[in-house]
Amino acid sequence: MKREVRVGVLASGRGSNFEALWRAQEAGELGARLAVLVCDRADAPVLQLARRLGVAAQCIDPGTRRARLPEAVESEIVRALRDQRVDLVCLAGFMRIVGRPLLTAFPDAVLNIHPSLLPSFPGLAAPRQALEHGVKVTGCTVHFVDAGVDSGPIVAQASVPVRADDDEASLAARILEQEHQIYARAVRLWADGRLLVHGRRASVHEPSPSGHGSNLEA
Ligand code: GRF
Fold first, then answer.
1. Nearest partner of 57 among 84, 89, 23, 82, judged by Cα
2. pLDDT of residue 96
3. What is the largest CA-CA distance in the chain?
4. Does ligand 1 have an atom closer than 6 angstroms to the CB of 10?
5. If you measure from the C-alpha of residue 7 to the centroid of ligand 1, how many angstroms do you get, rounded to a whole number?
6. Atom 6 of ligand 1: nearest residue by CA position
7. CA-CA distance, 92 to 153, in Å (whole number)?
8. Which of 97, 109, 126, 163 could disulfide-link 115, Cβ–Cβ 3.0 to 4.6 Å?
């Protein structure tokens, strides 16, 4: 019998994407189970949210470096994910750049959601960058994580028109609605074993009766 795909979410803040994944799971639309939330901020609302929703939650001390986690801390995160037998890692507002320990432990199995149509506006404050640049359409992207910043193969995108009267908050809110849709769909595709990565390109193939790869057969 095919074993359930287990997802570990890394988040640092509010947790609306985490909640959207949880809702998709509860609606039977995720094809996977949220096994653990790992957070790098003890005061992040997402920690309470996970506990309220009954998802195991763990807070990890990120140390003093800013954007990049020390390798020892990242290895601790990998241990926490492995303890929960995680197959797929989803970054959801995780304000750190991840590196070798996580990416080698979970090859082609780390996804991120970003609030722009990549490769435009990577990094912080993407809706603000879009407004300042004056684009008329922006959106959001789910991509595989590689060693760069918001640079890995693109899995899914949704576009959002920029309105003349948008400010950063109104634009970010409309983008967020789309994030919640495409992230759950991307996780479903991964869990169903339908995502293939060739170099920069991630493609979706037809469903196979056996679901994800044989390593997930119990
Ligand atoms: C989202 O806009 C996501 O795209 C970005 O960080 C934000 C996280 O929001 N990476 P939330 O914590 O999921 O509500």
1. 84
2. 93
3. 53
4. no
5. 17
6. 93
7. 17
8. 126
Ligand 1 mean position, distance from CA 198 (Å): 27
Using 50 as the pLDDT threshold, list the residues of the chain that sit under it: 213-218
184: which 2 tokens? 């759950």
Burial of 59 (0-12, 13-18, 19+ CB in 10 A): middle
> Tell me, what's the pLDDT at 217?
34
State the Cα–Cα distance between residues 24 and 26, nearest whole angstrom. 5
Q: What b/e string do you get for 115-143 counting C-beta neighbours within 10 Å, with b at 16 or more?
A: bbbbeebbeeebbbbbbeeebeebbbbbb
Please, is 144 exposed, middle or buried when counting C-beta atoms within 10 Å of its C-beta (0-12, 13-18, 19+)? buried
Residue 8: closest CA among 68, 18, 104, 16 = 18
Question: Residue 95 C-alpha to ligand 1 middle, in angstroms?
Answer: 9
User: Has 114 been annotated as catalytic?
Assistant: yes
Among protein residues, the one whose CA lies closest to atom 7 of ligand 1: 93
Task: Count Cβ atoms within 10 A of the Cβ of residue 192 and give its class: 0-12 exposed, 13-18 middle, 19 or more buried.
Answer: middle
The size of the chain, in residues, is 218
Would you say the CB of residue 139 lies under 6 angstroms from ligand 1? no
Neighbouring-strand partners of residue 34: 7
pLDDT value of residue 214: 33
